[in-house]
């Protein structure tokens, strides 16, 4: 048996990081528009409402709408 280099206390953080990465991957692939979000939610087997909540919780944003802040 191979031992993990991560402690049990790190597991929730790792799961959240993986979930965020997976959601972003599918949104990038399916599109950030409503139909793309519907397809992403369906692919991940979660409700569209849950997807919107996760997008907000993970501070995900459509890279096409990115505008750098100028000081």
Summary, kept brief:
The protein has 71 residues and is an all-alpha fold. It has helices spanning 11-30, 34-44, 48-57.
Assign an overall shape: extended
Unreliable parts: none
Query: What is the alpha-carbon Rg in Å?
Result: 15 Å
Separation of termini?
Answer: 53 Å
Percent strand equals under 5%
Number of helices: 3
How many individual β-strands? Answer: 0
- Measured as a percent range, the helix fraction is 55-70%
**Could you tell me the mean pLDDT?**
88
> By helix and strand content, what is the structural category?
mainly alpha
The helix/strand series, from N terminus to C terminus, equals: HHH
What's the story with the biggest beta sheet?
Answer: none
């Amino acid at each position: 048996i191979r031992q993990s280099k991560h402690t049990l206390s790190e597991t929730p953080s790792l799961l959240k990081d993986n979930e965020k990465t997976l959601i972003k991957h599918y949104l990038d692939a399916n599109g950030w528009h409503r139909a793309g979000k519907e397809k992403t939610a369906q692919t991940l087997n979660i409700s569209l409402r849950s997807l919107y909540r996760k997008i907000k919780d993970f501070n995900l944003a459509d890279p096409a709408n990115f505008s750098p802040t100028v000081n």
